[in-house]
Amino acid sequence: MRSEQNKILKWSAIFCLLLLTAGGCSTVEINKPSTLVVLLPDENSPNGAVAVGQGDAETVLDTPMTAAKVEQGGPVIKENITQEELERDFSEALAATPLEPISFTLYFEEGNSVVLDTSKDTLDKIFEEVARRQAVEVQITGHTDTVGATSDNDKLSIQRAESIKEMLVSNGLKSNFIRAVGRGERELLVPTPDNIDEPKNRRVEVTIR
Q1: How many other β-carbons are positioned within 10 Å of the β-carbon of residue 181?
Q2: Confidence bin at 17 (pLDDT 50/70/90)
Q3: Beta strands of the chain (E only): which ranges?
Q4: Cβ partners under 8 Å of residue 106, min gap 6
């Protein structure tokens, strides 16, 4: 593909399909028979596009759920594809796509690392999400409100993060896939002055990739 075409290859969710066989592609210059390129939605790159070319024939896919059909030696045909068609014809390719990162927030009792009863359902969802992913990386970040000394809150925030890490490890997740850190009162969800009891700031944020 020509260098100027490469500038518009911004969609990360692109499948280059040859006879219904999926494979990632960063350059889409067609030289094989019966090739279908499908442009999928991507929340992180909503304005992306991809150019599909064969010889002198070329078309640009710049709208999610559009496809370019190419027969060897023939034209590049642009058409729309439905979600039903995508799932019916390319289920194996979609299954191979990494899941998007997902984040959860757990809230804690004041002054300790005990998860509130109201966050127990969220904790169960975290366990379920970890279990359903084949390869998992987990970022756990502990936070506090502004009550107490900064140094004490630093310790408390890491204790909260470590308590969630221990729960995940006890449920079978390997500890080398988990990173637990504490931010103390430095990244308040609800900005408050010093020594203010704010329940939403007493939290742990869990991001699963």
Answers
A1: 12
A2: very low
A3: 14-18, 35-39, 50-54, 57-61, 66-70, 76-80, 102-107, 138-142, 178-182, 203-208
A4: 115, 116, 119, 122, 123, 126, 164, 203, 204, 206
Domain of residue 173 covers: 102-208
Q: Which residue type sits at 167?
A: M
Cα–Cα distance for residue pair 200/203, rounded to 1 Å: 7
Residues 51 and 59 sit within 8 Å (Cβ to Cβ):
yes
Three-state DSSP class for residue 7: coil
Mark which of 61, 95, 129 sits at the end of a domain.
Answer: 95
CATH number at residue 186: 3.30.1330.60
Question: For the segment 91-106, what is each residue's pLDDT rounded down to a tens digit?
Answer: 777 666 667 889 999 9
Judge if 113 and 62 occupy the same domain. Answer: no
